[in-house]
Structures are given as C-alpha cells and as structure tokens.
Amino acid sequence: DNQALAWAAAVEYKQANGGQIIRILGTGSMAPLIPPSAPGRNPEETIVAFVVTEDGATYEDVSTGDLVSYKAAWSPKYGIIHVALTQDSGGWIMSGLHNSYSEPQWRVTRDNFLGIAAKVFNWPQT
Length: 126
Prior knowledge:
Blueprint: H1 2-17, E1 21-25, E2 47-53, E3 67-72, E4 75-88, E5 91-95, E6 103-108, E7 113-122
Antiparallel strand pairs: 1-2, 2-7, 3-4, 3-7, 4-5, 5-6
C-alpha cells in the first residue's frame, strides 16, 4: 500500500541522513505539498504524510520560510507542519501553504518544537 511505501522511504532517508520521523495530519493547511485527508476521514486523526527532520536542527536554527513541525495543543498525538513566517517574543508565527492567514494563536516555541523538515513523504489520499 502507498502509506507503507512512504513509510519505508522515510525510514530509508532517516537511516541515511539522520533526523526523526514525524507523522503529519491531513488538515489540508499544507496543500498541495501535503494533501488533505480523504473525504469522510477525520483530518485531525488521519495521518497523510511522514516528515523526516533535519538531523540536529534546534529551535534556534529556525529561519523564515522553513517548514517546521511542532505539537499543537489540539493535536497531542501527532505533529503539525507549517511555514515559519516571523518570530516575536512569543515564538514563531506559522502559516499553512493553503491558509489565507497566519496562525498567531499557535506559536512554535522551544517547548513544542519538533524539528525542521528535511524531506516530506506523502501518498495519494482516496
């Protein structure tokens, strides 16, 4: 199945390059890079991609435009990934590629930072 192939590719990439694998939900905010979950599936519970993070990257390494994975309060089990827009005293303000607005209410901080994406592995959602 396509998800198993994506997982195998992510594991192979991680073994060659380091980093960690993070499961990403299908909310649709990162379309077209990361597809939304299939119709009828709960996007806040459906994994649609695996992201391998840059080996050794820390919160201090985040730059504008980076794809950053983090834990959101509404998703305690799975990672979220958005684009870093700007940093202020509260942390990094993020936005999805498909969003028409930034999300200042959910900042990336040292406490919820998971990693900077090195490579994304996804599969068609049906």
